[in-house]
Write a structure and sequence with these properties.
Layout (H helix, E strand, L loop, with lengths): L3 E2 L6 E2 L3 E3 L9 H13 L4 E3 L15 H13 L6 E6 L12 H15 L4 E6 L8 H13 L3 E7 L3 H14 L6 E3 L8 H13 L3 E2 L35 H16 L4 H10 L8 E2 L4 H8 L8 H10 L3
Parallel strand pairs: 3-4, 3-10, 4-5, 5-6, 6-7, 7-8, 8-9
Antiparallel strand pairs: 1-2
Helix pairs in contact: 2-3, 3-4, 5-6, 7-8, 7-10
InterPro entries: AKR_Detox_Biosynth, NAD(P)_OxRdtase_dom_sf, NADP_OxRdtase_dom
Organism: Flavobacterium arundinis
Protein name: Aldo/keto reductase
Amino acid sequence: MEKRQLGNTGLYVYPITFGGNVFGWTIDEKKSFELLDAFTGKGFNFIDTADVYSRWKPGNEGGESETIIGNWMKKRGNRNEVIIATKVGSDMGSGKQGLSKKYILKAVEASLKRLQTDHIDLYQSHWDDQDTPIDETLDAYAQLIKEGKVRHIGASNLTADRLKESLQVAVENGLPAYETFQPHYNLYEREVFENGLEPVCLGNNLGVLNYYSLASGFLTGKYRSKDDLDKSPRGGGVAKYLDDRGFKILAALDEVSKQLKTEPATAALAWLINRPSVTAPIVSATSVEQLESIMKAPDLPITAHEIELLTQESAW
C-alpha cells in the first residue's frame, strides 16, 4: 500500500478515507474511538467529516462528529499523524449556513474548537452557494490559509460548470483554488461524475474523495431484496438500487469477489481505487468487521480483466 498525493497539495494519504458521518449518529464515542484506532493502527491516515455531522439525529445539533474526532486526537496525542478534512456550508440551524466570507470565518473557529486543533488540513465547501460570489468565498479561504488555520481547500457537490468557474475565478483573481473534489460516486452512481465532472478533475489534477463509495451499503451485497432494507438505519436509502442494473452489478461483484476470495465491498472499493481520477474513496463503518473488509481494498490483487468486467456490468 502506497501513499498518494492529494491533488497538487502537499498532503499524502493512503487510498481509503474514513468517513466520519457515523460518529455521533449510528455509533457512540467509545465505538468511534475503537474504529479510529483500528483504522490508524493499519497505517491509514485520512479522516473526513463536516461541521453538520450528525445534526440529523434527534437530539443532535451538529458538530458531534468533529467533537468525537477532536476528543480522540487529544486522547491519543496523534494530531500530527493524521490528516483531517472537514466541510462548511451546510445548514447548521438559526441561519448558520452558506459560503459567505463572514460565515466561513465564524464557522471555522467552531470547527477548530470542536476538533481541538489549530489547523484543518483540508477545508471544503460542502454545497454550492449561488447567493455568494465565488471570489468572496475564495477570499475567506485565502485569509484562513494566510493565518495558518487551513492548509488546503476543496469542494463538494458542485456541478461541472460551477467547478470550472470556481477554478477560473481563482486564477483570474489570484486566489486559492480548490485542490480536491468530493463527488457522489460508486459502481452504481457513475453517470453524473463521469459525464462532466471527472474530466474537470483529471484536467486540473484535483484529488478526488468520492462519498457513498459503497452506495449506502448496497455494494456490500447485504441488501438483495426489499426484506433486507430493515437491516440498518441506512437501509431506506438502498431501495432505489434494487433494480435490474443493481442486481447485474451485484452479480459481477459476486463473481469477482469469488475469484479473489474476498468480499463484494472490498472488490467494489478496489474498482474505485483503480479509477485514474480517484485518490481515496470515503467509506464509513460501524464495526471492526466492516472496517476490515474496507482496509483490504488497497492491497487487493484485482486484475485489469476483473476491473473491466465490473466496468462493463455497471455501465450506465
